[in-house]
Amino acid sequence: xxxxxxxxxxxxxxxxxxxxxxxxxxxxxxxxxxxxxxxxxxxxxxxxxxxxxxxxxxxxxxxxxxxxxxxxxxxxxxxxxxxxxxxxxxxxxxxxxxxxxxxxxxxxxxxxxxxxxxxxxxxxxxxxxxxxxxxxxxxx
Amino acid sequence: xxxxxxxxxxxxxxxxxxxxxxxxxxxxxxxxxxxxxxxxxxxxxxxxxxxxxxxxxxxxxxxxxxxxxxxxxxxxxxxxxxxxxxxxxxxxxxxxxxxxxxxxxxxxxxxxxxxxxxxxxxxxxxxxxxxxxxxxxxxxxxxxxxxxxxxxxxxxxxxxxxxxxxxxxxxxxxxxxxxxxxxxxxxxxxxxxxxxxxxxxxxxxxxxxxxxxxxxxxxxxxxxxxxxxxxxxxxxxxxxxxxxxxxxxxxxxxxxxxxxxxxxxxxxxxxxxxxxxxxxxxxxxxxxxxxxxxxxxxxxxxxxx
Lengths: 140, 305
What we know:
The complex is a heterodimer of chains A (140) and B (305).
Chain A: H1 26-34, H2 36-55, H3 59-135
Chain B: H1 2-66, H2 84-109, H3 113-137, H4 146-219, H5 225-271, H6 276-301
Helix pairs in contact in B: 1-2, 1-4, 1-5, 1-6, 2-4, 3-4, 4-5, 5-6
């Protein structure tokens, strides 16, 4: 599939800013993107540009709109990756708790195996007595 | 002699009934829960795989679109939606959930009974051998008939079942109860993941759709009429996949919520004897999970790759 877009640049988490706007620090940028309203505003913008893309009849207009949309797509994708990574840490913490419970179930299994073993021992004791009796009847 | 024969059999029947009757609801409920949980776990793992693959597809499409631009995209900059560590951790947690559900079902249903059966059968047979040995070696005259040996085996098995069931009944409900908050936390986490996957997959499909449209328009006359027709026909199929994936993830989110509710009901039922509402929840969960499994198959079949 040939390339079909104007020049584009891989986005970062930083939103597009006008030259006159003071640059935000990374911490400020991250804080901005933690705001659900900001994220929703970007989602709405992405959707609005999508509608504009399909309404545009000129291929150059479509390319321009999609170029901006691609940037927003990347920003929102990065945010989702961050969210999923944060969840990974929570999953990791939960894993040990589930393992602890499964260990407790393992202990119950062991206790049950011990009951079975004890009963098996009774059977083998009876068997051993029978063997002794059959081998040495004169002892009795 | 008749008295001697009937006593062990009576004892066996009594113990068997004692052991069996009180445990059956727990056994039935944990088995049903395990089966439904297994379906939810499989569906969730499929959902992760589907979402990660879809995102890779969307990123690859963007890479192609920018390939000949002044600043093409560096393939190294592509990040997986969920990295290997993330997928591994989630898989381990889901496997832990599956192991938990399977183990409580196994314990409640007495998976160890083959060993117990073997020991009980050996006990009866050995008792008979002991009687035979005593009869030939001494003047005591003990003779254990095959019927008596079988009765002894049955009683022995009943005793074993009773002891095992007592162990299960006294400890498994406690573990189920302790697991409840972790299942709740897990359901919340999975639900959070699924919300993110739904959000992402919607845009991934939108990207695929726009890139496909752009490709057709830029290709112009370099595509034959037949090729052009085939490429245009892909557009509605992408939209259909988008809708199907969103429906599937929505259903999965519902299933995960039902799993937590069902486990909560199981924890309550394990300590009380009212399992009617639990049975309804399990049937609901199972139906939802089975519907999803069918959905995945149809989704894979109609995949537009």
